[in-house]
Amino acid sequence: MARPLRSGLLAILAVAMLPALASAQYFGRNKVQYRAFDFQIIKTEHFDVYYYPVEREAALDAARMVERSYGRISRVLQHEFQERKPVILYASHSDFQQTNALQGELDESTGGVTESLKSRMILPFTGSYADFDHVLTHELVHGFQYDVILHRSVASDVNPFMVRLPLWFMEGMAEYLSIGTIDAHTQSWLRDAVLDGYLRDINEMSQRDDYLSYRFGQSLWAYIGSKWGDEVVGILLEKAPRLGVERAFSSTLGMSLGELSKEWQAEVRKTYLMQVTEHSRPETFAQKLTKHDKLYDPWFLSPAISPDGSTMVYLSQREGFSMDMWLADARTGKVKDRLISSAKNADFESFRYMSSSAAFSNDGMSLAFVAKSGGTDALYIYDVRRKKVVQKLKFELSALQSPTWSPDGQSIAFSGIEGGISDLYVTDKKGKLTRITQDRFADLLPAWSPDGSTIAVTTDRGPTTDLKDLKYGMYRIALIDVASGYATILPHQDAGKNVNAVWSPDGTKLIWVNDRTGVNNLYLYDMKTTELSQITDLISGAIAVGPLSPVLSWASRSGRLLFGHFESAGYNIYGIEDPLALPRIPVIESRALVVAAPEGAIGGSSLPVIAALKPDSSATGASYYRQGTELRPSHELPVGTTVAAPVSVAALLDSAALMLPDTTDFSTAKYNVKFSADMIGRPQIGTQLGGIYGNGVTGGTYVVLSDMLGNHNIVVAGNLS
User: pTM score, two decimals?
Assistant: First the structure.
């Protein structure tokens, strides 16, 4: 600190404009940026969407998504923004990790952040529009929450920065309003929590801030919406900053949090305990190879098995906090070696465990994997015998995911993301790159066929996808012809999501994960008969951290299969000696009956509705109202009366065209640096009588300012003495 000036003048002690790198709270602490981002702005009705040229196409779609989500969420929460909100987009997670708009380091598991200081929503594209749209809507809900907290607190003379709502309240609401239901992923957590005894009550959730609050909170809000209607979500959000959570819930729902907690837990247990006996533990047909037995044990993710079925590679934080790559026996699970430690090697900042796994070459000698290195993703070729990297390939792409070897071992296919959009690419071992697909459809989790002609991918292509209206169908398995890039959608995929296909050794069959029953199970597809069969009936499900995380690997010669299974709030790896010997339950497609919404319903669109049950007017004790000279049953409305349909989150999310703007409504602008205050120190003033310096007045304050992207910072401090 500078010394006080005896002259009694106000002195500017520090004025610093820095071209990069620090948030206000971490002023002067640099975050490495590997390249400059030439940001521009798309201006919509309610948002300023910040993007850079490579992601322009995806950013225009994102601008339409966020306005559509705004229309949906504002209707549910009955709240409108009074100021424009910034949305900062990055073309990949590697670019996102370089942002200066946020302090500190960003882990790979962070899909997006909404901060309250400047009301910024900051997130990367993922290569899947459906996945990105979910995260964007989740973050937008946080934007609404912060906006409500600010305005309601100020109106009630409450300091908004002193309002702290529990994680289950904030994150659970964001998940529920962005999904509209309890998805199969969350169902796995609930089923496992009931079975394993770690289902928390509301009081315990309020005391713990961890990932369980996302899943349990989503379930709690879904229960509240199903019982009291989705409109009550906005009422509770409006009341909680003023009254506190307990009073808000009791005054609105007519029961205490404790009573609500017991009722919700009872419903969860009733729902999922009944299902336990209907499903199988994986130990009944597979061998457990890793050791996650309790809540805070290490996770074991992204399995990859050698062609002869003897060895496997996986990612785990089994020794420490970093996700490292481990080599183990694929039949016993015994660890052989830690191949690479991300914490000890700067070339491997992240192994992309959320979206990618390693892959063995067909001779078992080489391993291909993706890791973040120097601000971008690199494709590595690792010599298993010599235990060293022999090739590092970098491409002019935003991100790389999920490599898969060609049968001859000369080429590697992978999912590449450029400008936020994923496509299928093939490279030789020298880095000569060929683009196989080029469109806005997702092309994820590729698996090269044994005959080398096709690559199976997880995609949103299909009859229910319409990217013009940003409508995404369920994920399906498609076969991409390597020579032409032509995609063939396999049949029997109308129900549930279908992800992570892997090939049988002879190339006549595929196994993938489907959640049509509410549980992520393994399904076998026969290329010759075109039949799809369910081959497992798991309790929790074959899932990993995210809905698109890899969980399967099929040995190309021995036929041994590895799969990841969720249990005890974590992830284990299991092995099946011969998956083709498992019992098969053929999938029989059924058509769902959809009833059109009555004319005048939400947006005039055709949405699924539930028919109202009419009371039996012939029942004894029926009551009547007099209407003129006639009587009408009390359960019937007067002739000509119309009642607005109740707000339904699920119905709003299901209508893709509802509130979707056209890009002609947008304008664009260049990004110009403008400063706004991040922090203002409380002014202090005091007086001094006598002493070594005599009589005097002392005081001081400071202001911290930054631009929207956090690239430029100013600190102004003043001291008077």
Answer: 0.87
